[in-house]
Design goal:
By secondary structure, the protein is mainly α. It is about 60% helix and about 0% strand. Strand 1 and strand 2 form a beta hairpin. It comes from Rhodocollybia butyracea.
Length: about 425
């Protein structure tokens, strides 16, 4: 039997569904396009005139604090994960320099999974505090007193630790240069958008200021001169040696800890990591060349993520600090993270938002559901090697204690004095040992 009315209804309904679907998709994609660039455009309206007026004159109208605000668009909102990987890779590339890898190897802190894990976790936290916490120590421009001194406490701790080792100024300078230019490079190669000239300039201004506060000498005056210096430095300072390979190997294993061995996934991840290296760095780390197909696979994966982000995903409404720290001063007010030693005043302690293979500074769960979740993460999914506990500093971290196990209890007063000199005024409050 024929039911012309029913068939007509089916055709009309299908047509309506197709029209509604196409219209909805078009509206959604248009919304993504409009919102995706809104923060980027607002930032450029705010600062572009300062960059344009002085471009090419060897001058800058952008302060380090303004540069940090400019960087926030890409690092906190648009591409936080990519920017975090870029900075991690910048540090990783320094292991191709024998004078750097020898010092790291001599510390004996990269010879076991536990020590590598702590060093990596601490280094990430310290650099994140420079990068995401206000250089001025003030949570808002209107703030008169320092209320968030994390950036300079972290920098002072690094300066104090570095003073214990014979690090060459050129090695400092090379590391600084990689922090300047790797974010720009990763955005260009793998991001959903490139960094604008203003943003690239802001990275230069910001990291040059960090270098100045670290006491690094002879920093090139312009980004172009700095890039030329890096090329010249690598031509003589980057070459193969066993310590390069060893330090890079231990760090790679830490980075890929969560990747399962199943179906050779971890080995594939190791090989893709090698594909991300420039040839001169790969050779210096004594890593084998990889087939062109794996290079294409790496680019396909990262470009696909970038395409989806750009055209299909709405932008973040809240900042993402690389899942390491909370940039707001509210995170400093948690009274549960205290060291309740009987012979000393309680000190405020912090916890990261992201944890490495050995979950350093992960608080011990207090609820049944929390205990079940962490048990499953360790025993079922293998995300961590151990349960959180006192041996992994589950009570939290203090910036002045970080990185070296041997020097954990040393230099605290020196670090605070150095931080106060960097700020130019005394520090008080939860993050200061002075009560």
């Amino acid at each position: 039997m024929n039911f012309p009315g029913f068939l007509s209804f089916q055709v009309v309904s299908s047509s309506h569904i197709a029209i509604i679907s196409a219209t909805s998709l078009t509206l959604y994609l248009s919304l993504v396009r409009a919102l995706r660039w809104r923060r980027y455009n607002a930032m450029h309206r705010k600062y572009l005139h300062k960059y344009s007026e002085l471009e090419g004159k060897g001058l800058t109208g952008i302060t380090p604090e303004e540069a940090q605000d400019i960087i926030a668009t890409s690092a906190l909102y648009d591409m936080p994960a990519l920017m975090t990987y870029a900075l991690a890779f910048a540090l990783f590339k320094t292991y191709a320099v024998p004078t750097i890898s020898k010092i790291l190897s001599d510390t004996k802190e990269l010879e076991s999974a536990s020590s590598v894990s702590k060093r990596y976790a601490d280094t990430e936290i310290l650099i994140s505090n420079w990068f995401y916490c206000p250089l001025s120590g003030k949570s808002t421009p209107a703030q008169r007193e320092i209320d968030d001194p994390r950036a300079m406490i972290a920098l002072a701790r690094v300066n104090w630790l570095h003073s214990k080792y014979p690090i060459k100024n050129d090695d400092y300078l090379y590391t600084l240069g990689l922090f300047v230019f790797e974010p720009e490079k990763w955005a260009r190669l793998y991001g959903w958008r490139v960094l604008s000239p203003l943003e690239s300039h802001a990275f230069f201004i910001f990291w040059v200021e960090i270098g100045r506060r670290m006491g690094i000498r002879d920093i090139p005056k312009t980004a172009q001169l700095f890039k030329q210096w890096i090329v010249e430095y690598e031509s003589t300072a980057v070459y193969p040696i066993q310590t390069n390979h060893s330090v890079a190997h231990y760090t790679t294993e830490e980075l890929l800890h969560a990747v399962p061995e199943f179906l050779g996934l971890k080995n594939l991840a190791r090989r893709l990591t090698i594909c991300a290296l420039d040839d001169n760095i790969r050779i210096a780390m004594m890593q084998p060349s990889q087939p062109r197909s794996l290079h294409y696979l790496l680019k396909f994966i990262l470009h696909s993520v970038g395409f989806i982000q750009r055209y299909l995903c709405l932008p973040r409404s809240e900042s993402n600090t690389g899942s390491v720290i909370d940039p707001s001063s509210d995170s400093l007010n948690t009274e549960s993270n205290l060291n309740t030693s009987s012979h000393a005043p309680p000190l405020h302690r912090s916890h990261p938002k992201w944890f490495s293979a050995q979950p350093w500074y992960m608080p011990e769960p207090q609820t049944l559901w929390g205990k079940i979740k962490i048990w499953a993460a360790v025993k079922v999914f293998g995300l961590y090697d151990a349960m959180p506990g006192k041996e992994l500093k589950s009570n939290g971290y203090r910036l002045e204690e970080m990185v070296s196990v041997l020097l954990m209890a040393c230099g605290h007063d020196d670090v605070f004095r150095m931080a106060e000199r960097l700020y130019g005024c005394p520090m008080t409050g939860k993050l200061s040992s002075r009560k």
